[in-house]
Design a protein that fits this description.
This protein is α+β, with helices and mostly antiparallel strands. It has one domain: Beta-lactamase. The chain has twelve helices and 13 strands. The protein has an eight-stranded antiparallel beta sheet, sandwiched between helices. Helix 3 packs antiparallel against helix 12 and helix 4 packs parallel to helix 7.
Length: 366
C-alpha cells in the first residue's frame, strides 16, 4: 500500500497533524485551479452569492458550479487533494469505458475468464460466473468481507450473479485490481494517462492512489485523492458525453450506458438506493429524478458529490475535507460531520432554476 504520510518521531507526527488540520494542504493551496474556464455572466453575481451564502454552514468545504463550459461559482478548498471516497467508483467506471474501447476487456468477461479470485475467500463456481457488467452494476451476488465496507451485507450465496442489486465494496474493489492487471500498470498511472493528462488536471499525480486491505479478503480497496478542480474537469467530461474541450476521451455510447439505471428502486428494495434518496444505479453512478429533471450523481462519504443535469448542461461539485491523507481521515471519522446532502441538491435545483430563467451568455467573460 502506498503511504501519503510518514514521520520518524511522535512529536513530528503530532506537529504535522496539527498543521494539516489547521491549515489544510498548504502545498497544493498555492497551485492554480480551473482558471482556463471562461466566466459565466453570473460569475460572482449577487444572485449566485445569495444562493450559496449558507454553503459553509451546511459543511461544504469546496463548491464549484459550471454551466456548459462557463464557470458560475468556485469557492473553498478547491485545490486540496481530498479523499474522493465512493466517488472513486464513478471515476473507475469511465476508465472501464476507455479500457473496453481499447480492447483490454469486455463487459461479458467473467471472473473465471479473467482468472480472478479472492485468495483468502475463494469464489465458488457460481460466483466465478459474475461478469464485469455484474460488478459495474453492483449485481455480482458475491457477498464477502470487503475493505471499506462497514454496512451489513446479505448472506453469502443468497443471490446468483445478476439477480439483485446490493451496493457491494467487494465488487467495486475487485474492479480496481482487474483494471490494473488488464492495463498492465498501476491505477494511479492509468488515471494519469487516460484522464489527468487529457483533461489537463493540475493537481492529480499517480501517487494520489492508496490501497487498503483487510485480513478476511485478498481484494484490496483503492483510495483516490483528487482536488475539486480536477474532479470538475472529470465531471464535465461525463456531462458532455465523453468530450472535454473538443477532445473525445470515451464514447458517447459508453456514457449513456454507464449512466442508464440498470437497477432501480422499482425493481429492488428502495432502501438500497441511498436510503431512498436515489432512484437507480447504472455502472457505478447513481441516478435521481428531481422535480422532473434527470440527474446523474456520484456520491461519496462525508460530502463528496458530483451532480450533473445533462439537459441543462449544469454541473456541481461539492467537497467535504475528510482528510488529505489517512491520518486526517481518521480524525474526521472520529469528529467530523458530513455535508448536508439535501441542502446541496436543493441548491443545485435553485441554481438551475435561476440559470434557466435567465440563460447565461455564450460569450466568454473576463
Amino acid at each position: 500500500m502506498q503511504t501519503r504520510f510518514c514521520c520518524s518521531s511522535f512529536p513530528t507526527l503530532c506537529l504535522t497533524l496539527l498543521l494539516v488540520l489547521l491549515s489544510g494542504c498548504a502545498t497544493s493551496a498555492r497551485l492554480p485551479g480551473v482558471e482556463e474556464l471562461p466566466r459565466s455572466r453570473y460569475w460572482n453575481a449577487p444572485e449566485i452569492l445569495e444562493l450559496t451564502k449558507d454553503a459553509g454552514k451546511h459543511r461544504s468545504d469546496a463548491l464549484i458550479i459550471v454551466q456548459g463550459d462557463q464557470l458560475v461559482y468556485r469557492a473553498g478548498q478547491t485545490v486540496e487533494k481530498i479523499n474522493t471516497h465512493s466517488v472513486r467508483k464513478s471515476i473507475v467506471a469511465v476508465l472501464y469505458g476507455i479500457a473496453i474501447e481499447k480492447g483490454l476487456l469486455n463487459l461479458d468477461d467473467s471472473l473465471k475468464d479473467l482468472g480472478y479470485d479472492d485468495r483468502k475467500n475463494p469464489l465458488t463456481a457460481t460466483e466465478q460466473q459474475a461478469t464485469i457488467a455484474d460488478l459495474l452494476k453492483s449485481r455480482s451476488g458475491i457477498y464477502i468481507d470487503a475493505s471499506g465496507q462497514n454496512w451489513q451485507r446479505p448472506e453469502r450465496h443468497s443471490a446468483a450473479p445478476g439477480d439483485s442489486f446490493f451496493y457491494n465494496n467487494w465488487g467495486f474493489n475487485a474492479l480496481g485490481e482487474i483494471l490494473e492487471r488488464r492495463a498492465g500498470m498501476p491505477l494511479g498511472d492509468i488515471i494519469v494517462e487516460w484522464l489527468a493528462k487529457p483533461l489537463g488536471m493540475q493537481h492529480f499525480s499517480a501517487n494520489d492512489v492508496d490501497w487498503d486491505s483487510i485480513n478476511k479478503s485478498s481484494v484490496r480497496q483503492y483510495v483516490i485523492y483528487m482536488s475539486a478542480d480536477d474532479l470538475t474537469r472529470f465531471a464535465l467530461l461525463v456531462a458532455n458525453d465523453g468530450v472535454y474541450r473538443g477532445k473525445r476521451l470515451v464514447s458517447a455510447s459508453w456514457i449513456r450506458e454507464m449512466t442508464t439505471a440498470h437497477s432501480s428502486a422499482e425493481t429492488d428494495a428502495k432502501n438500497l438506493f441511498g436510503g431512498g434518496f436515489f432512484d437507480g444505479y447504472g455502472y457505478l453512478w447513481w441516478t435521481r429524478n428531481q422535480n422532473g429533471r434527470r440527474l446523474i450523481c456520484a456520491d461519496g462519504h462525508g460530502g463528496q458529490f458530483i451532480i450533473i443535469d445533462q439537459e441543462a448542461r449544469l454541473v456541481m461539485v461539492n467537497r467535504r475535507n475528510t482528510g488529505t491523507h489517512l491520518l486526517a481521515q481518521g480524525w474526521f471519522l472520529w469528529r467530523g460531520k458530513e455535508t448536508d446532502r439535501r441542502y446541496i441538491y436543493q441548491l443545485f435545483e435553485r441554481v438551475g432554476e435561476l440559470l434557466e430563467a435567465r440563460p447565461v451568455s455564450t460569450a466568454s467573460n473576463p
